[in-house]
Amino acid sequence: MTPTVSRSTAAWLRPSRRGVVTSLLALPFAGLASGSARAELHIDITRGKIEPVPIAIATFTATRPEEIKVGRDVTEVISANLERSGLFKPLDPKSFIQTPESLKVQPRFPDWRVINAQALVHGNVESQADGRLKVEFRLWDVFAEQQMTGLAYFTVPTNWRRVAHIVSDAIYKRMTGEDGYFDTRIVYISESGPKTNPTKRLAIMDQDGANHRFLTDGKKLVLTPRFSPTAQEITYLAYYNDQPRVYLFNIDTGQQELVGDFPGMTFAPRFSPDGQRVIFSLSTEGKSEIYTMDLRTRQVSRLTTGNWIDTSPCYSPDSKRVVFNSDRSGTQQLYTMSSDGSNPQRISFDEGRGRYGTPVWSPRGDLIAFTKIKDSTFAIGVMRPDGKGERILSESFLDEGPTWAPNGRVLMFFRQQPTDDQGKGGSVKLYSIDLTGFNQREVITPLDASDPAWSPLIP
Q1: Is the model's pTM score more than 0.70?
Q2: Residue 437 phi/psi, 5° resolution?
């Protein structure tokens, strides 16, 4: 089967998931499948703080020099992904007793238990006669002496990093029971230059910061990028002749398309879950209302009406509700309404002291993430769609703009440092944090970065 790779000349394009052929590896060692009476190794990610599971990830073996390098690179990406999730603790390879080469024959489980490995990953890289690369791996429960999963992937050699992310997702799902989030991308606003007049460019990268690309040249101010449900298009705001306009950017072709040039200030365009509409707010004569546009007919529908500011709309995963923020009660609070604009309900309450913004509905539908401003600090938090169960995950001088990983277990946001008396400082960085609030990590970018948007799993 020939891998499907389209438009490979585009600098930002990577082969689709459809171009990665997967096959299940049979249990290789008779007698091991029956295992012991020990409970299967499993990570319960619904609990609070989780102690990372010690996992041994042996360097993927290979024969030819170019395969050996790919094997090492694949191993490093998998190890970094799992470690960054906060659920796994990859062990130092220097502590390994059994060699990766001998693992191809059979794991010596007592050797792995001695170093306290609870799970073991090993794999192999091999070039095929048709030019494709075969990457296979097996995941073992060390104490039960059972294979938990084994898969082989066939793809073009340049797609090795993509396969490493897919392997990471397979390990994550097997051990947690939920989908991973490693085969995804982040689009964000890259900032450079003086804080009073920064250059802002649209940028995209893998979730781990690799394959970084600038998508715009910085000649126009760009804001609020958001992925389409297919992860192939981005909607964003750009200023043309000092007027904000909503654009679509096709990642495959690099082409930009003007969605609308509205008579007023436009904010925060965002796709509907089916990708057929864009919802946004439009400000005219001192008030802001929420609108939707059908991307096929370009017909615009108004959802809210009043002498207040309604903005930052976001659909629920089933498209039946919209969350937004509004000052209709006197302060900036969160509301939900039906997708036709009816039945608005306030969901945020904090004795009138806290203000809320940038709400984002979880892909799982169970939570809404938000920015909260209170007592001169900015915080990232979550609450249920009825407003109950509010929890603050992080706070600082300025934490803002949450975006969800596709599995609804991890959030990314940006954090700005304060400037000094001379106006210096004020760096802006991206951070990720999981729903427990314990695994906060900086996401490294070449320049300052703000307003991230996390893609769905790449098709």
Answers
A1: yes
A2: 80, 5
